[in-house]
């Protein structure tokens, strides 16, 4: 079933390294699916992705409307990897599905004891209330990531009996339609920082890629209970861009590491590009970088704040940008992202999807240190005019590891109407999902547009779309499920269309 002829020699030795690193995985299990994940692929599609140690010639998924009758099959020729990876990323798109319908599925060679399930998108225009989860800046949990201990100089360990964010979302899975993770996924590039801080055993720089890939694999396995049953929509963050956290300093030995230590395959969003398939073919976007999709009464837009801002600006992760990630750009066309955004926003049918929600990894309205690597003023310059022109309702971001709910704002001016039918977009930054060395500090005094802020508890965002006029955002504290902050946006508009 799988083709070892296509596996480069070098990949075979990396696979061996992976087996040595992860003693639990037996070499004969090399076509058993791991890291199973879903993503919406247009109104009638679902992308099923999974990893295997060996390349698959034709990755195949069986599916159906009943667990006992997986009578349909879909396959592809997409089983891809990159130089330092220990696995292959398999992607199969299921098409011509019924909307808003429960399906059962299994990737081929699965050892799962029963099929996984997914539910397709709600039809655009369906005004039935629903809830979804948003996390930004969520890393590996456990002994190699965020745990109850930290390394020297790191902060914010979990409390002894705390539920972490992955576990907290898992507890709430039944109530949410999907999970949106707009960047900073896994924090595998923290391997070097974790070693320098004495948290992980030291390797040589040359062997660092093994630790990096191990952290990535652990994270994707860890979130599989979530992503195998709920679509997991992702966006690019700076920690997807290279292997060394945008540069890391070992103060003890006076060594500054740069992207130069990263092996081929560990720069320029390579892992991220291989691992995911977001619905840009269906929305005219670009790869996993920018795209949009409809779900019920909401039009969702994922933007790329890391590269490709256009307008002659150097985006934060691009060569010469403040993050020193040396990545991108991904489009050769002038102003490709904002041209796409304009077209996408102009084509939204607000009768069908009255709500327009945008996420980009980086904030520009946030009470954080005013550094170009933290606050993305260039992002504001290129995106905000379009948000204002097209009445975007809500803008979500992370990157700063705090939770901050702001007022609706336009060009730094607080909307006088607050949440009561504002004409400016509402801004919420929630980068508090947690990862090794977890939270940042708010910078006081808080910005004048701030309404609520906290920098001590890990948590995730829960959005509930009640109807076409009311949208509630909750900050859920991961450790105990308490809602620490809740706010409801009201938009005065006439609701048309169906309600179930
Ligand atoms: C299925 O295979 C994976 C990957 O080898 C392994 O981690 C997991 O424990 C197996 N599960 C079962 C139920 O055997
Ligand atoms: C954690 O849970 C254990 C077992 O339930 C309990 O004995 C312990 O007191 C708890 N610790 C804290 C700090 O709550
Ligand atoms: C790894 O090296 C760093 C400095 O580069 C040092 O601080 C740390 O203690 C070392 N850790 C171990 C486990 O040897
Ligand atoms: C640290 O290294 C830099 C450049 O490599 C050097 O200029 C500096 O003097 C060194 N500092 C110490 C304290 O050794
Ligand atoms: C990153 O990849 C893109 C797409 O392949 C390429 O156009 C770009 O030049 C690369 N950037 C760097 C800095 O290597
Ligand atoms: C951040 O600093 C820059 C340069 O000092 C300044 O132009 C800009 O207005 C500041 N932004 C905020 C939000 O304070
Ligand atoms: C919309 O939902 C809100 C919150 O549940 C509710 O208060 C309001 O009455 C609803 N509006 C309509 C028209 O049903
Ligand atoms: C839940 O955890 C949060 C964050 O630490 C804390 O503020 C809150 O008091 C806790 N709630 C309960 C009911 O324990
Ligand atoms: Fe970030």
UniProtKB/TrEMBL annotation:
Record carries keyword RNA-binding: no
Domain Purple acid phosphatase N-terminal: 33-120
Catalysed reaction, written as an equation: a phosphate monoester + H2O = an alcohol + phosphate
Protein keywords: Glycoprotein, Hydrolase, Signal
The keyword Glycoprotein is annotated on this UniProt entry: yes
Signal peptide (residue range): 1-26
One Gene Ontology term of the molecular function aspect: metal ion binding
Domain Purple acid phosphatase C-terminal: 424-486
One Pfam family this sequence matches: Metallophos
Residue ranges of every copy of the Calcineurin-like phosphoesterase domain listed in the record: 172-403
Domain of life: Eukaryota
EC number(s) stated in the UniProt entry for this protein: 3.1.3.2
InterPro entries in UniProt: Calcineurin-like_PHP, Metallo-depent_PP-like, MPP_PAP, PAPs-like, PAPs_C, PAPs_N, Purple_acid_Pase-like_N
Family: Belongs to the metallophosphoesterase superfamily. Purple acid phosphatase family.
Protein name, UniProt field: Purple acid phosphatase
Record organism: Talaromyces amestolkiae
